[in-house]
Amino acid sequence: MAMLIPYGQRVTPDDPTVSSRGLMRPRPGGRTLRLTIAALLTVWFALPLVPLLLWFFADRWSAPAVLPTEWGFDGVTSALANGAVPAFGQSLALALVVAAIATPLGAMAARALTRGAVPFPRLVSGILLAPLALPAFVAVMGLTIVLLRARVPGVVGVVILLVAAALPYTVYTMRVAYAAHDLAYEDEARTLGASRWNVLWRVHLPLVAPGLARAAFLAFLVGWSDYVITVLVGGGTIVTLPLLVASFAAGVGNDAVVAVLSVSAIVPPLVLLLALGRFGRRYPTASYLHGPTASQSPKGSP
Amino acid sequence: MSATLEIDALVKTFGAATALDGISFAVSAGECLAVLGPSGSGKSTVLRSIAGLDVPSSGRILVDGADVAGVAPERRGMAMVFQRPLLFPHLSVLDNVAFAATVSGQPKSEARADARQFLELVQLEGFGDRSITALSGGQEQRVALARALAARPRVLLLDEPFSALDPELRADMHSLLGQIRRQLNPTIVMVTHDRDEAAVVADRVALLSTGRLLQHDTVERLYTRPASIEVSRLMGGRIELAGEVRSGVHHSAIGAVLAPEGETWADGPGMLVVRHEAVHVSTLPVEVPPGMVGVEVVVADRRARGPRAEITLACGDGLLEAEVPASRPLAVGQSATAHIPRSACTVVPAP
Amino acid sequence: MSLALVSPALLVAGFVVIGGIGMSLVQSLGLLPLVGVPSLSLDAYLANGEELLIGTGLSLAIATASTVLSCIIGLTAAVVITQGRRTGRIVAAVSALTIPIPHLIGAAAIGLLISDAGIIPRMLGIPGTEWPDLVGGPWWVAVVLEYTWKESAFVALVVAAVLATRVARYDETAALLGAGRARRLRHVVIPLARPAVIVSAIIIFVYTFGSYEVAWLLGRPYPEPLPVLAFRLFDSITLTSRPEAAAVAVVTTAISLAVVAIGMACLRRTPLWK
């Protein structure tokens, strides 16, 4: 408990590196335990990326050696020779198209659902979230026959299925954004003489922009990461990075190529994630949109 | 259960910004102190530092004479009620109140029996089994208060606990707090930006502005004997008469004013301040009563305020303010006499 | 107006969900053969009865193990992220790093890490011949590890967001009421995080239960989890294999939906659910 210190004897000020938040002050017993757990978690999350980076620069790395025996860029050369660049381009195009379609569709649906004027709202939001609960291969196996008979081109089929897979994420993200979005801003703008179009572009979209960015990022990830839908519905018309990685990883002795392709599949979403973080910080509404605003409003009298 | 609290030269900096700049005050056992100040004055930081939620950059906090530096918030024996009730959403009303006893390892039945008494104290007997979502805003804050009291705090900390409630509920909570003080006599530190609330609830007030303690005094003296022009303005004082004190008498546009009985004013330039509530306006020729200063004035402005009217009175360059019932026919341009009790006058240093 | 806003998304999702399940069901019952006359039968379900049963068990086991491990590790990470300062930021950064990595890439990385020629046996100095069959072995270790690696980061992200925004003030209140770290964790933090953990668990279970590429790349040829079985039948050239693949899809869907229903029931029983 508290030590008795005579009056007038000033306690030395805190070490400035110690957090000023009382609950986060380190306490000796828990500190060692917490540091150990944190170290283990860091290793857990980061370790699988190590072989990718090492193999990226390895020309030769035979079995017992702990580090590559010959460094170089043979993997890069080989990956380029095996269509890495077109695969990268097709992955990027597919992911961007999915994001460009699923984000506005999700935002529109979320806006309608938050304003509460949709008939059977529970059923509608259930259907919009359902692709999360439906394994991708089920949709593929059911629908290939429909898409084939309707003569829908493979690429279009892939995009339709991926947009559906991305919708739960965009709808949910935008519902969170719209729940915190105060419609009074739009009413205010109308009373100040802004047209509907002006309200949309100058008030509504800027206010939900952080939400839109998050939704678009998640939709991009769905398109960028997919394997099953692209391989089955695309039927070879598009070869994305995951398809290329899969074909090399299933073979033997392609470790360097797999590493190079994997790294190139990791970098774009990571760059987007960092950009998203910066965007969220720069934009002041982002933090307040996520705050517990709903429960903050004081309740009225009983 | 009640403890004394002493704050000694508390300093808190956030990076380059100074939130608290050497705050010192003491609260005796069973006293209720209101920490009053405009937003950004650092009053919440004082409270969070006492609670241990913020760590001060320097200075001491003594509870019953013992320094609590380095003592974890949960071991300080404080309890705090925030503006938001922050009732645990996964617990019933009763289990919220029983929380402190539960986490201290008491058997659940004892903890609940104990909690029931505190629910009764805040006049919510029978609400124990409800979910907290079934409570109104005022009831939520009562439960939060009961939960804090059930923790048997050595010092009860209130951080603007009633400012989200409407005026009627707030008045109810003030009388509830008064009743709790009579029954349990806890030491209370309450942060508020509402000087009327401070006046109703607290014995003494520590007035803060931009991280500095301007005055620590009784409510009455804060109104009638402000230590500075800043205090006078923060407390809503409207009359400021620039002038000079010569041989203990203040000379200004309204003439000479002698210091109240038993007080002396230092010679030199000084601002005479007096509460507008103390100014009496007379339109009939009457003798100036003893202990009063009579000033011949002209009504310069009149503003309706419902049942009352605010009027501005000019006396040469000097302006006085007063409040009169709305029914009094004092029109702009009319002459009158203002009577100011000497005991209501204070001279503060000129800004 | 609202209907116009919601209908494009609803059409796409409805087409894929209802069409996908409906057409799988129709095909699996023999009503849509590639050639020949449609006739209602359960042949497609019975043709691979034993494999279907074993696959169901295997898929359930993989999904359960991955879900449980992900939730434990992810919840721990979320607590470290919100309670520690510098350590919390580091864990937050590395876990966020794994979020955007495609599962297939994760599978390739896990393979390079723990196969018999992987980095870990090399670092430990264990020859490949003595290293246990983690990749393609009988216990599906590599598959569960890959799912757990990716999904624990997901749990950490979701739960840490809830802890940081909703739970921080309650944590302070509890501390002021005398609750120490361990008791705050037990009485406040974990109960308040429960709904987020349940939602994450449902999503992880359904995903790992119905996901193909990781199990295919890091698993063994037999027995097959349901998605791998369905894939093989779908790609096979015999005329009856398409309805059989559809039958596997229907079984997978039914179990997924049942798990979602159970999860939602658990969620409704938590006191926080409105």
Features of the shown structure:
heterotrimer, A: 302 residues, mainly alpha, MetI-like fold, two-stranded antiparallel sheet, 14 helices, globular, disordered N terminus, disordered C terminus, B: 351 residues, alpha+beta, Rossmann fold, OB fold (Dihydrolipoamide Acetyltransferase, E2P), 2 domains, six-stranded mixed β-sheet, five-stranded antiparallel β-sheet, 20 strands
CATH superfamily of the largest domain in chain B: P-loop containing nucleotide triphosphate hydrolases
Helix coverage percent of chain C: over 70%
**Count of strand segments of chain B:** 20
Oligomeric composition of the shown chains = heterotrimer
CATH architecture classification of chain C: Orthogonal Bundle
Describe the strand arrangement of the main beta sheet of chain B, using strand numbers. 6-7-8-3-9-10
CATH fold-type name of chain C: MetI-like fold
The CATH homologous superfamily of chain C corresponds to MetI-like
CATH class assignment of the largest domain in chain B? Alpha Beta
Distance between the termini of chain C: 28 Å
Description:
- The complex is a heterotrimer of chains A (302), B (351) and C (274).
- With 302 residues, chain A is an all-alpha fold.
- Helices cover 69% and strands 2% of the residues of chain A.
- Chain A contains 14 helices and two strands; from the N terminus they run H-H-E-E-H-H-H-H-H-H-H-H-H-H-H-H.
- Chain A has a two-stranded antiparallel ribbon.
- In chain A, helix 2 crosses helix 12 (255-282) and helix 8 packs antiparallel against helix 9 (196-225).
- The model of chain A is unreliable at 1-19 and 282-302 (pLDDT under 50).
- Chain B has 351 residues and is α+β, with helices and mostly antiparallel strands.
- Chain B folds into two domains: 5-224, Rossmann fold (3-Layer(aba) Sandwich), CATH 3.40.50.300; 237-348, OB fold (Dihydrolipoamide Acetyltransferase, E2P), CATH 2.40.50.
- In chain B, the strands form four sheets. Chain B has a six-stranded mixed sheet, with helices on both faces.
- In chain B, strand 9 and strand 10 form a beta hairpin.
- In chain B, helix 4 packs across helix 5 (137-150).
- The mean pLDDT of chain B is 92.
- With 274 residues, chain C is an all-alpha fold.
- Chain C has a single domain (41-269), classed as MetI-like fold (Orthogonal Bundle), CATH 1.10.3720.10.
- Chain C has helices at 2-28, 43-47, 49-83, 86-98, 103-114, 119-124, 141-176, 181-210, 213-218, 226-235, 241-269.
- The longest helix of chain C has 36 residues, at 141-176.
- Chain C is globular and about 75 Å long.
- Chains in contact: A-B, A-C, B-C.
- Chains A and C meet through helix 1, helix 2, helix 4, helix 5 and helix 6 of A and helix 1, helix 3, helix 4, helix 5 and helix 6 of C.
